[in-house]
């Protein structure tokens, strides 16, 4: 047994204090290194208006109803000292994501749901600062994904997965950047009918490609990497769900699998479809797609040389199945050709009546995709773009017909007031605040507004019957002054079950006129007859917000309803103006002098049925709901 002696040496107090200080500094440095890597949620006040949830695989920050870049920058900056795993943006009205917002942050997954983002970045690169962190990007119901520039992702060195689902994308019309770490790419339920000839050719390490539930009819070898040594799954299926005996049955959900060199069950360039080996990237692929309920491309007729090859092989004793597999032609086609040869000895194609279509189905899809991407393109523009891309020249009328077959027609766009992100945010907040008001509460609100009626209204509702070539004949023209000519400025208010008299004046509305005439002679009388819950609604025009007007409202105990700017679609009185304008335009003969127009306005105002006005007021809950559904943007009203 060894004797162990312990020597205890007394350390001077000065040395002990120095050691304690050094130990404290060392622990502080270690904590400074360890704490940023702790996977916990930051304080809620640091990430407002977002929230953080600690999921099983790490914390996730959820941001809903963002309307400006500042609302995203502030909470993201609040996560700089934390290791966040996921970021989810829901119902976002952002137009773009600031390129440098993610500097000094750690996010591995980013997801967009019901997003109105038009661009992934305001610069050349997206998600700057996440080059070595971001692994997944998912998007569902992104309204403007067709305008995303995928080349902005080229700096993401660790991006492993891109998944896009349930989006009207229509086409993949650009090459994906060379993302060396990307192994899984999914674009499903996106209404895709056109794929760029080299869309995925730069994704050398791609393992899984899913283009399920789209409208793709043709695939070419150039679309995929060469060599496709890592690619193992191509999903081109279309899934049909059938409800039967309270069970959900999924039909026809086979996947196409590329057979690689080291797989002895098949040859390179072939796929498996239900146990049958089918050659990939040839006409046999269309048969595979047809089996998966994808619309087939236009039939290509067999030339005389190929018909002779088929008959020659059959006469040499080959079976129809062998010839079908060798030449990649359906056995039913070979069977019909052989039957014709036995009947009359002729296999030449019969003469077909009718002029052949000048465009192919692929060119028709190109026209549709181009029109959807730039809806302001004229038929001539689309014709020139088609000629430049494919060499096929078509007339404007052909463009009209092709687009009409898929339900696209030239229509005049709806005119709306310009809305900024701030306007959308305020409109959305107002709609949420008032969405649950009852009809009884809306019955206490007086809606008011002004409008101008001119002798020469430009409503564009008048149509004429004329012969071709007579557009500029005197009887087919309407002469108008550039600025509408003389007219009247009118004001009125509506409330459930009643309305004010129509106030007509020839001068511009001022704060003094608004106070002395509108408030004193009209609104004050209704306020005296109503209950205490009476609310007065007027818009944010400058005369309405004058100090003398505010003082008058306060002295008369009239409560004003807050109103978001640029919101004529939420105000039901706008439709009353439309009804009044239609009635004036329908008068025969129309008013030609200002006194006649004044009398017509007063008469028609009294003739508008009150129940139509009441229906407009009772539509306020639906208007609020529509504004919420559009995230504060324009509504159908």
Give a verbal description of the structure.
With about 625 residues, the chain is an alpha/beta fold. It folds into four domains: about 45-235, Leucine-rich repeat, LRR (right-handed beta-alpha superhelix) (Alpha-Beta Horseshoe), CATH 3.80.10.10; about 305-345, no CATH class; about 360-410; about 425-630, Nucleotidyltransferase, domain 5 (2-Layer Sandwich). It has helices spanning about 15-35, 70-75, 285-290, 305-315, 320-325, 330-345, 360-375, 380-390, 395-405, 420-435, 440, 510-530, 545-555, 575-585, 595-605, 610-615, 620-630, and strands at about 50-55, 60-65, 85-90, 110-115, 135-140, 160-165, 170, 185-190, 195, 210, 235, 240-245, 245-250, 255-260, 270-275, 275-280, 445-455, 485-495, 500, 505, 535, 560. The strands form five sheets. Strands 1-2-3-4-5-6-8-10-11 form a nine-stranded mixed sheet, with no helix packed on it. The radius of gyration is 35 Å and the shape is flat. Mean pLDDT is about 80; it is low at about 1-10, about 30-35 and about 240-300.
């Amino acid at each position: 047994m060894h004797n162990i002696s312990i020597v205890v040496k007394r350390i001077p107090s000065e040395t002990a204090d120095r050691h304690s200080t050094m130990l404290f500094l060392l622990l502080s440095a270690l904590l400074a290194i360890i704490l940023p890597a702790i996977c916990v949620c930051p304080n809620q006040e640091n990430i407002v208006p977002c929230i953080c949830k600690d999921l099983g695989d790490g914390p996730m920050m959820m941001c809903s109803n963002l309307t400006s870049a500042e609302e995203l920058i502030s909470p993201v900056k609040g996560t700089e000292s934390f290791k966040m795993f996921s970021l989810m943006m829901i119902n976002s009205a952002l137009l773009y994501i600031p390129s440098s917002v993610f500097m000094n942050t750690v996010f591995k997954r980013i997801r967009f749901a019901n997003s109105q983002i038009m661009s992934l970045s305001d610069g050349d690169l997206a998600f700057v600062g996440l080059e070595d962190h971001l692994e997944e990007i998912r998007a569902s119901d992104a309204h403007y994904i067709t305008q995303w520039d995928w080349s902005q992702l080229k700096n993401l060195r660790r991006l492993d997965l891109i998944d896009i689902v349930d989006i009207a994308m229509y086409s993949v019309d650009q090459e994906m950047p060379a993302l060396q770490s990307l192994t899984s790419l999914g674009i499903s339920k996106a209404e895709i009918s056109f794929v760029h000839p080299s869309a995925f050719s730069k994704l050398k390490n791609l393992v899984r490609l899913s283009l399920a539930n789209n409208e793709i009819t043709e695939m070419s070898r150039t679309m995929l990497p060469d060599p496709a040594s890592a690619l193992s799954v191509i999903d081109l299926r279309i899934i049909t769900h059938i409800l039967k005996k309270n069970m959900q049955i999924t039909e026809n959900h086979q996947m196409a699998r590329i057979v690689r060199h080291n797989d002895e069950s098949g040859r390179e360039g072939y796929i498996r479809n239900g146990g049958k080996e089918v050659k990939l990237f040839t006409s046999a692929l269309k048969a595979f797609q047809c089996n998966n309920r994808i619309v087939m491309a236009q039939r290509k007729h067999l030339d005389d040389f190929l018909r002779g090859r088929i008959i020659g092989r059959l006469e040499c004793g080959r079976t129809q199945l062998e010839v079908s597999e060798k030449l990649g032609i359906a056995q039913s086609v070979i069977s019909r050709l052989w039957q014709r040869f036995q009947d009359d000895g002729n296999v030449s194609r019969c003469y077909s009546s009718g002029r052949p279509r000048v465009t192919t189905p692929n060119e028709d899809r190109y026209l549709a995709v181009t029109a959807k991407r730039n809806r302001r393109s004229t038929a001539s523009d689309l014709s020139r773009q088609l000629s430049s891309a494919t060499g096929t020249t078509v007339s404007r009328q052909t463009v009209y017909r092709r687009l009409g077959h898929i339900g696209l027609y030239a229509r005049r766009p709806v005119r709306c007031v310009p809305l900024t992100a701030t306007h959308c945010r305020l409109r959305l907040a107002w709609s949420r605040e008032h969405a649950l008001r009852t009809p009884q509460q809306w019955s206490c609100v007086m809606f008011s507004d002004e409008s101008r009626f001119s002798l020469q209204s430009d409503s564009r509702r008048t149509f004429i019957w004329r012969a071709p070539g007579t557009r500029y004949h005197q009887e087919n023209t309407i002469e108008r002054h550039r600025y509408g000519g003389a007219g009247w400025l009118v004001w009125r208010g509506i409330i459930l079950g009643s309305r004010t008299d129509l106030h007509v004046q020839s001068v511009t509305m001022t704060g003094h006129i608004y106070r002395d005439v509108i408030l004193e002679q009209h609104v004050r009388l209704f306020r005296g007859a109503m209950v205490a819950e009476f609310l007065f609604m007027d818009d944010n025009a400058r005369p309405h917000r004058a100090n003398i007007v505010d003082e008058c409202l306060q002295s008369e105990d009239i409560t004003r309803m807050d109103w978001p700017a640029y919101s004529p679609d939420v105000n039901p009185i706008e439709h009353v103006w439309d009804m009044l304008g239609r009635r004036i335009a329908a008068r025969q003969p129309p008013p030609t002098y200002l006194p006649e127009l004044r009398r017509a306005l007063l008469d028609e105002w009294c003739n508008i049925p009150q129940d139509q006005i009441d229906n407009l007021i009772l539509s306020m809950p639906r208007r609020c709901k529509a504004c919420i559904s559009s995230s504060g943007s324009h509504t159908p009203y």
